[in-house]
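Support case: zinc ion complex. Customer-provided input:
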Amino acid sequence: MLCAVADSRAQAPTIALLVDQPQTLHVDGRGEMEVRLEGPFTLLGQTRNATGLDVRVQASAIGGGVLHVRDTDGARPLALRALALRLEREGRPVEDALSVSRGVPNDAGLPRSPRAERAEDPEAFRIVVDGAASNLARMRRLEPVTGVPTDERNVVLHDTPHGRVSAFFRLVADARDAQAPDVGSQLLRVALGDVVEVEIDGLTRQWPVGLPGDATGPRARRRARVRAHVVRWRGIPAVGGSDEAARQLVRDEIAIANALYAPCHVDFGVARDVDVFVVDAPPPTLLGVADGDGLPASGGTVRLRANGRRISVSIPTGSSAVDTAERIAGALRRAGFRARVTTNPRTRGGAGPSADVHVRDASGELVELSADGDAPLTTDARQRLHLGVVNLDDGLDGFEDHDARAGRLEERALIHALADDDPTTIELVIVPDFARRERRGEAFIPSDGSAVASALVVDREGLLESRSAYTVAHELGHVLLDLPFHPDELSEASPTRLLSSRGSDATVRGPKRLTADECTRLRTRGERHGLLRPAP
Ligand SMILES: [Zn+2]
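Agent response - structure generated as follows:
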């Protein structure tokens, strides 16, 4: 909206308007006032006020015209001029929203020539102006809450047969991307929800980065909720050295993930507001039945203690792992505890699914399970029971190919102790190390049928490599895409893709890109599993 104050007593300057953008002009005047338009302009309305008249005008085409004003002092003309200002993407005006580029910022998708006719990057855009007096535009990012402009720059426009155009631009979200060599003047760093404003001849137009959460379509903003846990082992948090430093490191990871998922219009919330819990490794609070092999019972007696209370239950011959788990859970409930049974997908070579019993006290606090003195947990020689002991001295047991869907008992014991009961949150767990030292992260994807779903575990090294391997964002990709594979396992090497299994590179060529197909898939799967919601 423009408020052009035209001084009627002096030689009035020409008033510029944007085509198709209704604008309000204030015209000074006294007494009874009348206005009339000449040229490609339409009068939308008028309001009398103390100093004159507010006239709402819209231009329908480029060109000049006159606003004739009459008041008690007589008649006078005010010159009008309409110009067109638009952004163009793939040869068409940008009507909805701009998007962060999915490309490597300085790759060939962004033409360097200021007179290039088209860009390979479907999200690259240029300024197109018709009928302007100036050949210099201003472009800036507006911070969405305060409206404070940042990163303002002059943009030179070149006359072409198609109008006065700028070079092509890309939006980037990541700080390192914004430093890409050779193309700095053609990049604008933004975040989802920002506004890009362009000014020419004193007139401005704005375009949002992504559409609001209540919109539909691929540019509508979506948000995933992450709960993060940094595990303290022997008093020391897995990263950072102190609780506060650990929280900050995790929030830095969320900020990086926000930048990497911005091209898909997905974020993980304001990084500084993400819940990060720094917690001691839990006591044994989970009991594994037939872990790994899923064998049925040959019959026996189960004996254990929960917070010191003795629990005993006999198991009939032939009971499946889940039957046994339910019997134990029943005995725990009768003793006043909360007990819940989950099943784990059969491992390769296993006889059937195994089961876990999760135990809390009546107020929801963790319960410590232990053997009852020297008695074995079960007298059954075939169907074994194990306490879910988390012992990080030797690193966290990570899954292998044959039990990837079930995960290891130690992992399940850890994640279940930390996770909430809300399946629509993603649990991020930071541990000191994995038992397999070369492992950096693991993801439990929603459709695996696992009792652990939508969770990721990353070790200290994985966090420290955040700027070259992007481990947290990579594992989040497995969860949101609901995909256990890596593109480079299925086809050719793709070192710049976030889902690459081997990528590690601290430059703009690093493994940080999501493809258009991946954006589509992660939005579809993420919404189906309730992991993505409209961004507020
Ligand atoms: Zn992976």
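The longest strand covers residues 74-89.

Case will auto-close in a few days if no follow-up is received.
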